[in-house]
C-alpha cells in the first residue's frame, strides 16, 4: 500500500476504486468510497449533509467518466454522517441490511436541528453538541427508503469486479457492513474502523468489533478505507484491534474494582493511544461496556452522557493546554 496523503477530497486508489476523505475525521467528518468497472459503478456511503454530499458528487462527476450515473449506494450503517446525502443520488438503488434500513427510518436530522436552534436549553451537553455539529447544515434532508435489503452477506458484481458485503454487527451500530473488493485487495470498513480516532459504541458488543478486525486481517487486503480518518494499512488494523482490547480491559478492571462508569471513564488513560481524537467518547463507550459486563446499562438521566462528554472535553483541553475543538490532540 502506498503512503496516502490525508487531505480532503477524492483519492484514486487505482484500478477503478477511489476514496473520498474528510479530515479531520472527527464527529461527522466521514469518508466515502467509489467503485467503477465496465460502465457500472456504486457509491459507498454519502455524507452528513446535502452541501457536503453535493460537493463530493460534483468532484466525482468531474473526475471519473460515468460518475454522473451512479447505479447504487451501499450504506454501511444507519448513522446520518453516512446516509444523510442519499437523496441527492437520484435513481440509485440503495443497498443495506434490513437492520440498517430499519435504523434509517428513525435516523432524522430533526433532533440535531432542535439542539442547534437552542443549545443552551440542554446546558453544557447541548452547547457541546452545537460545537461539534454546528459546522453542518441539516436543513432539507429527506431519507429515501432502502430499495435492496439483505441479511448476513451479499455478493455483487460491478462490471468485472466482485464486491462482497459482510455484516459484522452489532458493533458500532446494530448492523455494520464491510465492503470487500478482493480483486483490488481493498476494504471499505464504514465505522468498523475509526483510524486515529476513538470509537463510538452505540450498540456493541465490543467483542464483535474485535472479531471484525480479525476478519479483515484474515483477508488478503492491503488498502483499508476507514469510516473516519486516513487510509489505513494492515498494521493500522492490528493497532486499532489492540486499542479495542485495551479499552475493554481497562473498563473491565475498573468495573471489577467497583468504580462507577463515570469514575472509570475519567480515570482511564490511553497511553500509546492518547493521540486518538475525540477522547470524550470514552464516556459513551464505558457506559456501554458496563452494560455488557452487568447485563444492563447503568441508568443515566436525560442528557447526562452529553454533559459528561462536555466536561471530559473541557478537562482534556485544560490538561493539554489547547483551546477550541473537542479534542486538542485531534484538532491541532
Short description:
The chain is an alpha/beta fold. It has helices spanning 50-63, 98-106, 110-117, 123-133, 206-218, 234-256, 261-267, 282-294, 304-320, 328-331, and strands at residues 9-14, 17-21, 32-37, 40-44, 72-74, 93-97, 148-150, 153-158, 161-167, 177-181, 186-188, 223-225.
Task: Indicate the proportion of strand residues.
Answer: 15-25%
The largest beta-sheet arranges its strands as 1-2-3-4-5-6-7
Task: Give the helix/strand class.
Answer: alpha/beta
Number of distinct helices: 10
Helix content: 25-40%
How many strand segments?
12
- Gyration radius over CA: 19 Å
Write a structural description:
With 332 residues, this protein is an alpha/beta fold. The chain has ten helices and twelve strands. It has helices at residues 50-63, 98-106, 110-117, 123-133, 206-218, 234-256, 261-267, 282-294, 304-320, 328-331; strands at 9-14, 17-21, 32-37, 40-44, 72-74, 93-97, 148-150, 153-158, 161-167, 177-181, 186-188, 223-225. α7 (261-267) packs across α8. The longest helix is centred in the last third of the chain and has 23 residues, at 234-256. The model is unreliable at 323-332 (pLDDT under 50).
